[in-house]
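Hi D.,

Good news: the full-assembly prediction came through. Inputs first.
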Amino acid sequence: MSRPGARTLGILCLCLALLGAGVYATVRWARGWEGSVTLLANWSGTEREQFEEHVIEPFEEKYRIDVVYQGSSALSQVLAADIAAGNPPDVAVLPGPGELLAYAVDGRLHPLDGLFDAGDYDRFWAPEVTVPGEGAHTYWLPVKTGLKSMVWYAGPAPTADSAGPPARWCAGLESGATSGWPGTDWVEDILLQQAGPRVYEDWANGRLPWTDDAVRRAWTTWADLVGAGDADRVEQVLTTAFDADCAAGRLEHQGSFRAGHWRKEGGDYVHFSEVVPAAGADAGAWEVSGDLAAVLNPTPEAEQLIRYLADPDTALPEYTANRAAAPDTEQDATERQIGTILREPGRTRCWDASDAMPRTTRDAFHQAVLRHFADPTHLHTRLKELDHLRKPQNLPVCGTG
Amino acid sequence: MSTTRRDLIRRLRLLLVLATATTLALLFAYRGVHDDTVPLSTASTPGIRAVDTARSALRQANAVVRETGAEGDTSGEFLTQISVAQQSLALAASENVTGLTGRHDVQTVTGLIAVYSGWVERRGREPEGSPLRAAFLHYAEKVLGVEAEAGTEGDIMSRLDALRGEQLAEARRQAAFPWQLWLGWCTVAVLYAALCGALLESQRFLRHRFRRPVQLRLLAATAVCAVGVPVLAWQTLSAHRAMTDSVAGVQVPPAVPDAVPEGAGEVRGALADAGFWASLSDLIPLGGAVVAALALWGLWPRIAEYRFRSQR
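Then the structure:
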């Protein structure tokens, strides 16, 4: 039998190469994208890049689901417009449960029951919310959490006696569209440390009047601490950004997002209850914040994304509330400690109250702190105005899981 | 034995193949340019101009606020400029140049304009001397982003810059002449030359073999080719030049508000007949069919004639 010639072999090789290319192309085509999911959140800049790199891209690679990320600094307005137009994103990530609760009551959110193990989270992070006519369901999942009730310093740890005059405190109330929120954090935290979690929860849920003595005392304490009404101080603090540099030797009442800045200054933090005047017997609870994911369009892709976000192996940005997640080995000691406080059972954690309030109350609260800081002599008027907006609700604001 | 019939059939086949190939290549190359002229002139550049108008209106609105003290009533002119900005953004959204991302950017900017207006209105309600007047203006301008650094995403101007960048990238893509189009037009040139050559050679062959000075049908086919393809090529060149000029005209945001309508008029003028010339692409297959039919009509009677001669 004669052997095939070189030309025949060449043609055969070419055919095989073409067949191989065809098979490869077919497999690639068959394994193409299997749907998409739109995700609305307010992360931008580095925060967005990190989320896309560590969360979205691995998800897309693993499940072949395209994530259409929409980052908006006017999150409330965009979401309201989308919902009003009947075109909501599949998944929205909102800061805090107040606005989500309103959407859940309106029937805009879809339950997440069965998509993740709620036991991996402290109940107040992902609570069962009772919606009239719908029963009790879980409507949101924490994606990213932050710790508050912190006083950052460099040097000797401050106490209530050593904290010093208002000028020692770094304070900035400017935050663009949401200017005023740093002031609400102060008032909330003072109330939490002076009056305790129970009073705090009643107030955040609209069951305690704004004109209550405990609330009034929190406002006056804040005014005294930061020098409200002092003309020079007022002008400077009102127009200073919340994340402006704060020199070593000064104090800063800010959340865990400032860890990087104070690490460079060689600083540390103490619990706010150690610094606040007239801390109560129940002082020591931690105020926390969190970005919560909710499903507005229950597509299989949206549900898959929720499962992925709840997976303990998913590398969520700082800090996860998932107790089943392994510790992040890249974090320093301070960051690990913050992560532990956010997850560890037995600690009392309370939502940033303004994030738990209805949107209109939250926005009015922002305005009220700005006005109170400029002129603290009209506190009663401010509190009466806020009390007019009070709407009782039933949200788990504090938890000791 | 005569080879004329075989020669005629060979020429007819060649002409049909070349006519078909030239038509298809011309259709691809022509549409490659003209399919983008209408979106560029009716959506992309108006979308960019709409964003420029919104930016300009917002700057003017802010200037009105800055120039007026607590006593002056800024509401009329301020609200007019805000309205101009909102309507321009509605136009930019309706052009849908950059798809879902662009629509979402417009939504975010619209939401931020509401926040900006809110701060300005609060400032207007504060009495002269109140520290909140300066603070509220500061917040409004932070939201507006008049002095924002490039790359930030949280303010109106940065968002509009990003949206404009996306729209401009789309306009550049539409006005581009990538290698595929170069290849397409080179193919057209080669096939066109071959087709014209084949038509002339066939004409010469018929004159030599049948002693007739000219075959009118083949001459008509040659005329259709000789005129049609260069006209379409020339028009494509003009359209591409106009597209490039239009994109160059919107490359940089106008420095003064009056430049926005002037620039829009120039773009409209440059691409005024874009729709007509784009619609001609539908006639290219018809033109190719006419050339093929004329070639067939011109040669087939002679072939038929030789059928009988070769059977003798």
